[in-house]
Amino acid sequence: MPLPANFPGTYFPGRGTLIEETYLRGEAAGTTKTKAQSILELLAGRGVPVPESVRERITGCTDLDTLNRWFDRAVTTTSTDELFTEAEAEAEAAAD
Q1: The pTM is what?
Q2: Which residue among 32, 39, 51, 61 sits deepest, i.e. has the most Cβ atoms within 10 Å of its Cβ?
Q3: Are 70 and 48 within 8 A, CB to CB?
Q4: Distance (Å, whole) CA 14 – CA 24
């Protein structure tokens, strides 16, 4: 799993080593997992139903920028469909 582009640098001992890279990947994975969980909790707290397919899409996402965008939308959304609308349009535009 590549590190997110916006992931902060580190002062890890042995900088630039395989150990540091492995550590940072683990930290990035933990960050995305926490953000995904926050999105699900926010939706549940707001009473927005989350189908299993949506739950899997959110928890399976490893892109922190996408998760941050979904989190921002989860604050005001009334359905999970609204979380992905722009993301799908952007993906289609990038494929063209």
Answers
A1: 0.62
A2: 39
A3: no
A4: 12
